[in-house]
Amino acid sequence: MFVPLKLVFGRCYLFWGPNSSCSGPGDCVDEPCDAFVVEETERGFQCRLDVPSPLYKYIIGKKGETKKRLETETRTSISIPKPGVEGEIVITGQQRSGVVSARTRIDVLLDSFRKKQPFTHFLSLALNQPAIQEKFLQFKEEVLEKCSKDHGVSSSLFQNPAKLHLTLGTLVLLNEQEIQKACDLLQRCKEDFVDQITGGQPLTVEVAGVEYMNDDPAMTDVLYAKVHMKDGSDRLQMVADQLVERFVASGLMLKEWDRVKLHATVMNTLFRKDPTEERNNTMTGKSSFKERESFNGQNILKLFENFHFGEVQLDSVRLSQRFSSDASGYYATSGQLCFS
């Protein structure tokens, strides 16, 4: 009997259920729909897989228990490089079914732990042009002048103007190979659909107005500036949604929303703890109330509802590195897709 399909890092699997006709652990095959390569050797069968070194520990387990259990249940031998050394994990066994089962179980195991890793990169559109930075600093000055007596409002809440940006989605890239995979995918997206949507030209957007992300403006966690195309079209939304769709399909990104929320964070309570903080809930607007001290944003929303931060010509989508800075003060770029 089969149980439902599961997507694991871009590959789908069909798992054998409890009523299947497996004669033993080594014969139970968790067979993938797009079977990976299993080589026949003089001693049996072998499968190689690239795994970023930070994930080795999840295959090994405490005192090697996870690795031993996998080897015992699938009747295989699993060779793992030394900690910190990038290389291939090699699964060998007498039976092809056992090798396939071990490989599939490792993929599922790693998929589970990968989801728990803090993100390392994100797709961004820079909004840190000098004119926007100047207007943002004006916004900050006026907010502090008019609303500093409101609960929780202080200068520590504001974004670093050099890092103003739109976030399209976050990624966990754990070695150079995964970073290169993301860069290559960006270029394929340019060829496949981005050039057609943008016409090979920068996208002119307006940054104007502020909104909040939680239910009660008196207990605001994130305040963001709204971004929209100056010509009224939905081309930026189309680029954002299709990029995220493609990255999710590749397994490099997890799907969080049906549509990308086009916003630029200007105030965030997480900045109060650490001005460099760019946690996943910062990017997406999800609140962790145990870690946040909200502020009263009611007056800010009333007074600055239509504040105009200016116009920007967006000319690229960047693969930005978390916790980094380049010469301009923006995030270091691992790769980019240029519109023109």
TrEMBL record:
Keywords carried by this UniProt record: RNA-binding
Single GO BP term: regulation of DNA-templated transcription
Gene name of the encoded protein: ASCC1
Name one cellular component (GO) term. nucleus
Quote the protein name from its UniProt record.
Activating signal cointegrator 1 complex subunit 1
Keyword RNA-binding listed? The answer is yes
Boundaries of each K Homology domain copy? 43-111
GO MF annotations, alphabetized: RNA binding
Task: Tell me which Pfam families the record gives.
Answer: AKAP7_NLS (PF10469), KH_1 (PF00013)
| Species assigned in the record | Taeniopygia guttata
